[in-house]
Amino acid sequence: SSTLERMRKDVRILLVGEPKVGKTSLIMSLVSEEFPNVVPYRAEEITIPADVTPERVPTHIVDYSEAEQTDEQLFQEINKANVICIVYSVNNKNSIEKVVSHWIPLITENTDKDSRVPLILVGNKSDLVEHSSMETILPIMNQYSEIETCVECSAKNLKNISELFYYAQKAVLHPTGPLYCPEKKA
Ligand code: GTP
Ligand code: MG
Q1: pLDDT tens readout for residues 96-139
Q2: Ligand nearest to the CA of 18
Q3: Is ipTM beyond 0.95?
Q4: What is the pLDDT of residues 70-95, one digit of tens each?
Q5: 19 CA distance to ligand 1 centroid (A)?
Q6: What is the pTM (predicted TM-score) of this model?
Q7: Cα(116)–Cα(29) distance, rounded to whole angstroms?
Q8: How many CB atoms lie within 10 A of CB 151?
Q9: How far is the CA of 131 from the centre of ligand 1 (A)?
């Protein structure tokens, strides 16, 4: 992994998920360290300089919004990403169901079969519920080896926000799962 670290110039993190789960709010909360009451559909791409990231690698954070982007633009971003955060809202069952029925297949179809992109499941709006969504999420994690980890967070009370982006960096720089299957290449 130290070789990988030396070779990698930067990390590109893409956030996807159903509308209104809080993708833009998560990015803005990270950048401004406070919850923005009003957000655009899509945040500008931001680059965090190496020296202020935990892993010392320049990190690009890319937002997605169905309202402002075409499917083709989404597919291009999926292709460019080093790690993809699939965001759902812990108080919205439909947004969780879409992780498996829509987002994972869409990502699989649009990435190179030999180099799977690591995924992180992000349950946002944890401030709105008493109970964790982990019971629902764990079977999904066990089913898909490309899912590196999952995290529950809140853009509103800034819970687990910096952790989320740290996990995303780590998934690229120090992956724990196999990112390619040698037997498939034979
Ligand atoms: P699209 O751009 O339409 O795909 O939505 P999005 O996923 O970017 O969601 P956005 O950040 O626009 O947030 C949608 C709504 O959820 C807004 O009203 C936010 O204020 C609210 N919201 C976002 N994060 C949180 C959170 O952690 N807790 C609570 N309570 N509300 C949140
Ligand atoms: Mg948005």
Answers
A1: 999 999 999 999 999 988 777 999 999 999 999 999 999 999 99
A2: 1
A3: yes
A4: 999 999 999 999 999 999 999 999 99
A5: 8
A6: 0.92
A7: 29
A8: 20
A9: 19
Say whether pLDDT at 3 is over 50. Answer: yes
Q: Which two tokens stand for residue 56?
A: 């010392």
Q: Which residue's CA is the nearest one to ligand 1's atom 5?
A: 20
Give the dihedral of Cα atoms 105, 110, 112, 118; nearest 10 deg. Answer: -60
Mutate to test the pocket of ligand 1, among 29, 39, 61, 102 (most ligand atoms within 8 A of CB): 39
